[in-house]
Amino acid sequence: MEFGREFITLFDRVQIRYYGIIIVLAMLVAATMAARLAKRDRRDPDHVWGALTWAIIPAIIGARLWFVLFPTAALVAQGQDTAWYIQNFFNPENGAIAIWSGGLSIFGAVLGGFLGAYLYFSRWHNPIGRFFSSFWWLFIGILGVIAVVLGANNAATWAIVLGVILLVIVVLWLIPPTRRILRRFFGEGEGERFPENGLAMAPWLDIAGVCLPLGQAIGRWANYINQELYGLPTTLPWGIEIEGAKRVGDFKSLVDFPVATTRFHPLFLYESIWNFLAFVVLLNLFLRNRQNFRPGDFFLIYVMQYAFIRFLLEFIRVETTIIGGVNFSQVVSAVVFIVALIIFVMRRRSAPSSTQSEASA
Q1: How is the chain split into domains, by residue range?
Q2: CA pseudo-torsion sign 36, 40, 41, 46
Q3: I need a surface site. Which of 112, 183, 327, 334 has the fewest CB within 10 A?
């Protein structure tokens, strides 16, 4: 086992990236806090883990898709535009599929995660659940084949091993005797049935709105590991060093910006601190003053506060997405903030209500 700057190497070939470890840790911590809030609110905390299960894949896809569709100006300048990512989709180093190398957008993650959570809490839950419970083996088999092919083409032993394991699971499931054993092992058929009409989503969005900043506060440190979220040069004492290979644009010049003397704004740290403070404030409001808010308000506050800080930090961010001569992330942040604010104000015209009428499972 060898510990590198960005990953752990096992058996001389298998790499476990700190980026992925931190992201998974962030999700688990945020979900654990959400489950505790749900239990305190007399709701079934299992729905937190269920919604996370449904949201995680759409969130990852959304985060990467947003990054691919709206690459930064620095990437476009070196030829890595959207067309390049599509043409090099399966490139394990920095292609569209290489999420382990970084390049995940929080905007896409929230949209994808919201879609997954919506499907979980909606009336589509049971039809989708029945479909996947019947055909999950097909999707696992496809993933196994893709992993084996990618591993063979790129000499990645870990991918081949993973693919073989997935294919073995599928084969065992398709054999009736072992299928019965697996069903008993996983307890298939047990558990409470999900309501056919779904559950009201607003109260669960509030719980998510409180806990998401905590996950983001932790997850931003993954950006530090990859040195991919930093700002303009600074002389402030907390400026961070960025190695030449991780720099973009004019800052790649080690003559004009020597590594030994040049420090950059740690945007990941600014956002991490802001998100943690947002979590503390939202948590206190949720626990002590929720009677003054309507279901869904906390999620709107979460959206507004993040759009606000993202808009400000974009002024000193180095890796920006420029479309039509304007900072695309700032435009999105401004639009999201205004829309969320309008919805919040319009909802405040009604009498505050802390009642939550949906069934608590």
Answers
A1: 2-122+198-348, 123-197
A2: positive
A3: 183
